Amino acid sequence: MRLGTITNPMNSDVVKEMDMPNLKEVSAPDERPAETVIEPGKTVGMPFTANPRFQLRNVEVFYGENPAIKNVSLDIARNEVIAFIGPSGCGKSTFLRCLNRMNDSIDSCRIKGSLQLDGQEIYSPGRDVVELRARVGMVFQKPNPFPKSIYDNVAYGPRIHGLANRKSDLDDIVENSLRKAGLWEEVRHRLGAMATGMSGGQQQRLCIARAIAVSPEVVLMDEPCSALDPIATARIEELIAELSENYTIVIVTHSMQQAARVSNRTAYFHLGHLVEVNDTSRVFTTPEHELTESYITGRFG
Amino acid sequence: MQTVDLLPLVLVLAAVAYGLAYRRSRAVAAPLGGIRNLQALPAYYAARAALWCALPALVILGCWAAFEGQVIQGRVMASLPAELAPQTDGQASLRLSQISNLAAGKLNPALVPEGVSGAATLLQELREQSSRFKTLLVILVAVLGGTFAWTRIAPHINARKSVERILQCLFFMCAAVAVLTTIGIVFSVIFETVRFFGKVPVTEFLFGTSWSPQTALRADQVGSEGAFGIIPLFTGTLMISAIALMIAVPVGLLSAVYLSEYASRRVRAVVKPMLEMLAGVPTVVYGFFAALTVAPFIRDLALMLGLEASSQSALAAGLVMGIMIIPFVSSLSDDVINAVPHTLRDGSLALGATQSETMKSVIFPAALPGIMGGILLAASRAIGETMIVVMAAGLAANLTANPLDSVTTVTVQIVTLLTGDQEFDSAKTLAAFALGMMLFMVTLLLNVIALKIVRKYREQYD
Amino acid sequence: MTDPGSQAELVRHSLRRRYRKERRFRFYGIAAIAVALFSLVILFTDIISKGYTGFIKTTVTLEVHLDGELMYLNDASDPDQIAMADFQAPIIKALQGYFPDAVSRADKRELSRMTGSYASNQVRDLLKENPGLLGSTRTIEFPAHDTVSVYVKHAGDPGYSIRLSEQQQRWTDELVRKGVIDNGFNDVFFSNGDSREPSNAGILGALVGSLLTMGITLVIAFPVGVAAAVYLEEFAPRNGFTDFIEVNINNLAAVPSVIFGLLGLAVFIGVFGMPRSVPVLGGLVLALMTLPTIIISSRAAIKSVPPSIREAAEGIGASKMQVVLHHVLPLAMPGMLTGSIIGMAQALGETAPLLLVGMVAFIVEIPDGFFSSATVLPVQIFIWAGSAEQGFVELASAGIMVLLAFLITMNAFAIWLRKRLERRW
Are residues C236 and C105 in the same domain? Predict the structure, then answer.
């Protein structure tokens, strides 16, 4: 990764995924209010819920020797939409990727603490990653359709997991998923067309359709709208609202407005700490923590 | 003086010019209040003088050295009395070596005809003349060039610009060497090939099924029936290359996949350099291995299985060539696989696909054009590979599909036809150039297509 | 759509089958790597096991009585007598000292084939230099005959056939027991040129030839390659001709090496009338062949110099040429050197084009200049590998080891250089 990219704020999230350790130094904001002190492991607001889907306790993530997540505890309830916000490099994407073990492929990444999905440890040695990911789907920052047809993109997951016995079942799953993603009417007549030829917004909705075709219980979204224009973003946000009836959705976003629009709860991360978790309305009107307030009022970020 | 001795002399002159011009430019600058009043630094005036001194002299020296021999030879041969004048190229080269041996004192003058010794004296004389004249001219040009530059040392002249222009021209000429090389290759093969087709019809060359150039040694047999049919050479080349690719492509591709997807960093750090070692082994070593170890082994194995196998089987050459190409395929595939964006991989893994499913149904199809390009490059390598087949494949041009048989290839024939004694105008020698042209065209075509595919593929993901 | 519970059940159900596939795929990968590494190991063990005996020479040490009468020689300072004398006789006599009953003509012939065919020359040269030694007795170490050497080194090896008669085998066993025939370090291999006799052949001639050839290649290819790379990266205008040059370079890099031999033959020998078999010619051909590699790696090195450095220098008012010569080139030099060393290593191992320009000649003398006939290491290996005498096979393998040692050293040096001079921007 070239250094030039890091200095460009528009791209800084790309950096964060690949190169966490470097970014930490770069993005340490000097303008942080000097009087504020973060107490490690102490999160204000309501991090815990009854009967959670995810129960995350004392999670720490390291890239090599550098801590990226410092002692975070959080519950994620069933069928809620929770948004992770915070300045660049605060660890929100890293934390999100822990939830379906997408960090496994980064050699230097180590994870401590307890992460449970429905009471079962995500990182226990016997845990099956494939099965976990079939239950916890993910949508990425940049639309990443496979260079195949639209149909094959959506059918890919059900095919590998053996979810359909007949062609007609598969057709049903594809149609259903595309409908849920609000894409069906646009593409029903060109299912065989290359997915890479679609517009950015369509591609991202296709990726969502692809994720929900496996019928996951949770959908993780890593800044799903950052590469899209406002109209496409609005479309995706509507979609998130519709999906929240059936799925638990965890969304990382850079846009506070988006978090305010789509989520029930909002978690604010700062330099690897989970500073505050509260109902979204509360966070954006009367934040409890000074840092949260500074952030949402635009003093840094 | 000889060319080799003149080179250092020119360099010394250039150094002298540099030193003098440097002092001169400082002297010019002194009354004006120092070198800051010159348009360029003294070093530039000096460098310009050195370049002016050396470059023209070197050009003249180079031209002289390139054509001296030809001109002298022509005049010496022309001086021979009619009855001694050679009729064919072969006689000419014999006569020539006789004359030069005589001139060098390696031959007893009593043993050769009168006219020849006269020619030898002439040769000696011409050589001395040429050498004297060359020395004089080179020194003169060097001094003149240096003097010219010396007169142009003045405060208002920007020497830096002209030095930079000269340097840039030199750089350009260096870059043009690549083009000259290509032109040289094209012309050297085309010229001889055209001469070859004057002796052997094109259709016979391209569609003939029998190859035995040795029978054409005698003049009355030149172009005799079926002696120059290229088909068996092509089938032989194709068979060996196909065997090589059948080994190299799966092994190279799968090892690249394993190394980039599964292997831990430690394993990668050990295995990758070892694969690269295979690429660094000279082809003559592979040839030795193929001819002295693999070929006998395959023959013995075939005998054990009750099969008839040649001791120079196509299988042995192909097998070893395959081993040679493995690192080539694996490093190309590695590049191509790594060029597939990470996001696609993540997309598939996040759906719960296993690594092999991701590989087979997402990365592989995406990388396919690049991999195809890589395989084409590997094929061009296999077709052009020479030493392994020269040492391990046979000379007999069999038209066969049995890999245990001995076959011959285009490159083997080029080498066989051109090593040892040769005359420039025999169909046998010229055939080698015709083969060279076929080889050049085929590999060029493969390379151009492959590079295009690979580049297109890169652009797709950039 | 079905309910999530049964979905999860379906996923779990398919897992076993999928993991089996996964394992199979992974196994294919491991198998592929194993095949590649196995080939490498086999290649190296084969060469080492064939070649280590090339570094061992078998000698016959005899007390030779330089008897003038026996040699038909009464004045060793007379060149005519030296030319006619029989120097084999005292050697046979010395051997007969161990085997007194070997007196028949056939026995004598077999005795004379215990030492190498250059043994008599050795006696001759000794007497030529010191005529006074005539009549004295000297202890002389002769190289053993090829067949004896094969028998001593390789008896029982199925790869070699023993070509000694039973009587000779008995003699050899006896002499080995008495310490007359012995193995030692093959210094001849490192101090001689080629020879018709394996026991007298060495690699030094080819080594010097290679060094001379590489010298020419380096002197031509490095400056031209670097200059071409600088032009293409820094000065070339974006036009059709520049594109043409680039396409040319990329294609030249993939042209089969044997084609460069044709170029050398037709242009350098045919048009310019250069002599065959000389290092200058070989070096020139290899330089043209290596040029694309050097240009490509040099361009990569220049590209890796960050634009900020150029901008900084330009900001001070340096001309384009000054920027290049003062800043870009020094910073790119490690990369260029590394690429060039790797290109040179390729050239050092190259054989095919040199066969076409006549560097395949049988050359006994060590070449003494850029214009004297020479051969190079890989070609020497090629010649030996194709020779009929069994002793040459081990020499070829030993030659390969020498060649590989050079290549490994060069590559290691390139890696060291890269590590050492690597700059982090």
Answer: no
Cβ-defined contact of B353 to A107 (cutoff 8 Å): no
CA atoms within a 13 Å half-sphere pointing along the CA-CB vector of A246: 14
Q: How confident is the model at residue A7 (pLDDT cuts 50, 70, 90)?
A: very low
d(CA A80, CA A74): 14
Nearest CA in chain C to A170: C1
- Residue in this structure with the two tokens 């205008």, named with its chain if needed: C237
Q: Tell me, yes or no, whether C400 and C387 share the same domain.
A: yes
**Distance between CA A160 and CA A175 in Å, rounded?**
18
Which residue range(s) make up the domain with C360?
Answer: 204-421
- Select the residue of A102, A107, A131 nearest B350 (Cβ to Cβ): A102
The answer on C147 and C37 residing in a single domain is: no
C-alpha distances out from residue A219 to A48, A138, A222, Å: 20, 5, 10
Of B69, B70, B178, Cβ closest to residue C292: B178
pLDDT digits (tens, 9 = 90+) for A24-42: 344 444 444 444 556 666 7
The A81-85 sheet, strands edge to edge: A44-45, A273-279, A265-270, A81-85, A248-252, A218-222, A136-139
Chains that touch A (3 or more CB pairs under 8 A): B, C
**Predicted confidence (pLDDT) per residue in B196-210, tens digit:** 888 888 888 888 888
Share of chain A above pLDDT 90, in %: 32
The answer to whether residue A33 is domain-embedded is: yes
Pick the residue from chain B with its C-alpha nearest to A157.
Answer: B351
Give the nearest partner residue to C258 out of B384, B447, B451, using CB atoms: B384
CATH assignment at residue A28: 3.40.50.300
Residues of C in contact with B290 (CB under 8 A): none
- CATH number for the domain spanning C316: value is 1.10.3720.10
Question: Min CA distance, C34 vs chain B (Å)?
Answer: 9
Domain B231-461 fold: MetI-like fold (1.10.3720)
Q: Are C257 and B386 in contact (CB under 8 A)?
A: yes
- Nearest Cα neighbor of C214 from C317, C301, C284 is C284
Coil, helix or strand at residue C278: coil
Which of chain A's residues have a Cβ under 8 Å away from the Cβ of B362? Answer: 146, 156
pLDDT in tens, B335-349: 888 888 888 888 999
Total-model pTM: 0.83
Lowest mean pLDDT of B101-105, B172-176, B375-379, name the range. B101-105
**Tens-digit pLDDT profile for residues B127-151:** 888 888 888 998 999 999 888 888 8
Q: Does A207 touch chain B (CB under 8 A)?
A: yes
Q: Is A146 on the interface with B (CB under 8 A)?
A: yes
Model pLDDT, residue A15: 35
Max distance between CA atoms of chain A, in angstroms, equals 64
Distance from CA of B194 to the nearest CA of C (A): 14
Mean pLDDT score across all residues of chain C:
87
C69-87 per-position pLDDT tens digit: 888 877 777 878 888 888 8
Domain boundaries, chain B: 3-157, 231-461
| Interface confidence (ipTM) of the complex | 0.89
Neighbour tally for C114: CB within 10 Å: 25
CB-CB neighbors (< 8 A) of C29 in chain B: 254-255, 257-259, 261-262
CB contact under 8 A, C36 and B255: yes
Confidence of residue B181 (pLDDT cuts 50, 70, 90): very high
- Name the pLDDT band for B321 (thresholds 50, 70, 90): very high
Q: Mean of the pLDDT values across residues B150-154?
A: 82
**Among B353, B347, B462, which residue's Cα sits nearest to residue A140?**
B347
Positive or negative, the CA dihedral A229, A234, A239, A241 is: positive
- Mean pLDDT over each residue of chain B, to the nearest integer: 85
Domain range for A134 is 3-144+217-296
The reply to whether A72 falls in a domain is yes
CB contact under 8 Å between B282 and C407, yes or no, is yes
* C221 and C255 assigned to the same domain: yes
The first and second tokens of residue B420, run together, are: 């040892």
